Amino acid sequence: MWRVMVKEQFLTVLPLMQSCLHGWGSRRWHKIVLPVVNIPKLNQQCRVARIQEALSHKNPLKLSFLSRHTKCLVIFSLCLGLIFLSGFFRVKNKDYTTSKVHEELLIPFMPCRAKTNVMFLKTHKTASSTVLNIMFRFAERYNLTVALPADQLVHLGYPNTFLAHFVEEFQTIGQNYNIMCNHLRFNPSEVQKVMAANTFYFSILRNPIPLLESSYIYYKDTVPAFRISKDVNEYLASPMKYYHPADYKQNIYARNIMWFDFGYDNNAEDNKKYIQAVLKEIEQNFHLILIAEYFDESMILLKHTLCWDLDDVVYFKLNSRSQDTVQTLTPESEEQIKAWCSLDWKLYLHFNQSFWRRIEETIGLEELEKEVSRLRMRQKLLMETCLLDQEAVGKDHIKNKALLPFQSGDANILGYNLKQDLDNRTLRTCQKMVMPELQYTSYLYAVQHPHKKRKQLGLPLLWTTFHEKMQPTAPNQGM
Question: pLDDT tens across 388-435, in order?
Fold first, then answer.
């Protein structure tokens, strides 16, 4: 029901009732409570009333004893009755429609719960060290248990196929680990012995073209196929000249390394049926596959999928190398990689498509752009807060050698210098964001297994002092 000014909003009705209103005195009525009505329908209803009045003169039962004013009153009352009746059904219908919409809007919003049982398959040369740092920080923030390499291992048995006993204290802790993210060669049945049934599995892939170039530089001194070739283009010009299957495990980084990390034969024949079977199996084993070339977008998708906070996925890039160590691939070499590493190439193409399909189905490109912008703003703020140089620096410019990343091959692995005037809480947060993989693994190992011998990383003695400073009173403090 709405209040309607008769003189202002009911003028369409007045001419139809003019004869009835004549002689009734002033029309200066004030507010009448009326429903919103259908004016054309009202016109028709009042016309019917006037016709009925005209016909009543021929009706033998006409009320001739009534005065003119009384008859007008009857007709006017009839019109008003029709108006109210029309309004009643209209409001009734409106109330029904409104209540239906309201009911739809009141579908209970089910807030998601952060997933805390997570397995990350850490592939090689795919920005996975940065993801590992994110996982370690999340574990500390929520006081979770990480499945760390046993004894003095820094990987979970890699390159051997994973076995549950590669995890420290598996026999004691059993299937009660929350996080697994160190390097391993995937073996689902053995991983499931360590991780809970509701564990979320994800990994990350990178375009095999820049990945192989990066592997060549990083493993130049350790991989026979790389060591005996002059540069990456010479190697790719005739890979079988340098790649010998007999050196199988030493050469895993030289061909289809991602395929190998997922637990498959990196020297397998490029057979369509075989590839489709493997892709289907990976889709069954993993809930999400991220793409390194779209790292920020990947972090937003991960955040949404795991129901984590923005600070859970904010990061500083780790284990990256200086640009002066990058070798330029010829167009011929790029095409050769697609053929030489065809298993990795098809793996990447398949999951690159599924990645963007997942984005469109869950977040949408417009919202993704907004959230990526917020992530980068948060990252910029933390860099301004934490970093002395506002960016990563070469190995020779890292002042605190305890924060020096592991150096390999011909790569110059970058690190960070922290500001000196940070309060303890901020310092702890900043230290963990820039802490290299081996140092963080050793640190968490000491926290989770204080009765065990610390991992010997061959780091400078300064690391011991740094490690003592980093030792928290409780694992989840300072995050």
Answer: 998 999 999 999 999 999 999 999 999 999 999 999 999 999 999 999
Closest CA relative to residue 233, chosen from 250, 217, 256: 217
Give the whole-angstrom CA distance, residue 251 versus residue 242.
Answer: 10
pLDDT tens-place string over residues 86-123? 554 444 444 444 344 344 334 444 578 999 999 999 99
Task: HSE, CB side, 13 Å, CA atoms: give it for residue 155.
Answer: 16
Helix 424-434, helix 128-141: angle, nearest 10:
150
What Rg, from alpha-carbon coordinates, does the chain have?
Answer: 37
- Alpha carbon distance 446, 428 (integer Å): 17
**pLDDT for position 67:** 53
List C-alpha distances in Å: 314 to 137, 374, 443: 10, 10, 21
CA 84 – CA 150 distance, rounded (Å):
83
Cα–Cα distances in Å, from 146 out to 153, 182, 285, 442?
A: 14, 9, 20, 12
Maximum CA extent, the chain: 124
3-state secondary structure of 265: coil
Verdict on whether the full-model pTM lies above 0.90: no
Q: DSSP of 412-444, one letter per residue? A: -B-B--B-SS--HHHHHHHHHHH--HHHHHHHH
Instruction: Out of 61-65, 267-271, 325-329, 347-351, pick the least confident.
Output: 61-65
pLDDT range class, residue 452, cuts 50, 70, 90: very high
Q: What sign for the dihedral angle of Cα 126, 129, 134, 136?
A: positive
Pull the structure tokens for residue 300: 């937003």
CA-nearest of 216, 224, 201, 191 to 125 is 216
The number of helix segments (H) and strand segments (E) in the chain equals: 21, 6
Which residue blocks in 286-319 are alpha helix, DSSP H?
295-306, 310-313
pLDDT at 248: 81
How confident is the prediction for the chain on average, in pLDDT?
82
Q: Which residues of 394-419 are buried (b: 16+ CB within 10 A; e: fewer)?
A: ebeebebebbbbeeebbbbbbbbbbe
- Smallest CA-to-CA distance from 463 within 427, 429, 438, 426 is with 438
Residues in the chain: 479
Q: State the residue for tokens 């693994």.
A: 441
